[in-house]
Amino acid sequence: AQTVTQSQPEMSVQEAETVTLSCTYDTSESDYYLFWYKQPPSRQMILVIRQEAYKQQNATENRFSVNFQKAAKSFSLKISDSQLGDAAMYFCAQGGGSNYKLTFGKGTLLTVNP
Amino acid sequence: GAVVSQHPSWVICKSGTSVKIECRSLDFQATTMFWYRQFPKQSLMLMATSNEGSKATYEQGVEKDKFLINHASLTLSTLTVTSAHPEDSSFYICSARGTRWDYEQFFGPGTRLTVL
Lengths: 114, 116
Hints:
Chain A is mainly beta. Chain A has strands at residues 3-5, 10-14, 19-21, 24-26, 32-39, 46-52, 60-61, 64-69, 74-79, 88-96, 102-104, 108-113.
């Protein structure tokens, strides 16, 4: 069974500062993918960043980057130069296996203070 | 990016009636669609997975006779909540996956269902 754990129910950051959201996972799959999704108050799920497990290089998307530690099964998200629009619920998700399902963590609510 | 629409965005119905929610992939063919339920301040709970032209696979604990899923084409899946009751009130989200992507799912904007 796959599990995804987000140990921080809530986080806050000052505008323009950097924040890191934690995520650990467990899977028996050798080939899998990891994602961070953002859900703002509108509740539209938005993909922030994705990481293929076979790639050693950490994914980056503008101000968003991940620290992927495969041996430790850790997949943290770093948000640099935080903006007010980054305030949202962030979900870590893992996908693997032939059914293409995603397993989601419980989420981290990020508040950005002006 | 790939776009998924969902209709209606919100619906209010009386207890005992049925409600249909549509999920469409607008610019790609969705080989697999997923239906989730989300309670306030909680994560997404997968209800079922559907592949075009075949029966949906329901997660444990989800009543397949209450939540009817049809994936009749590569761009449309529907979720029908039959004989709805107040406890079915929730936020329902669909997502779709195309063959160009591995596990990435594209999400619809969700449907808020309120059963009176």
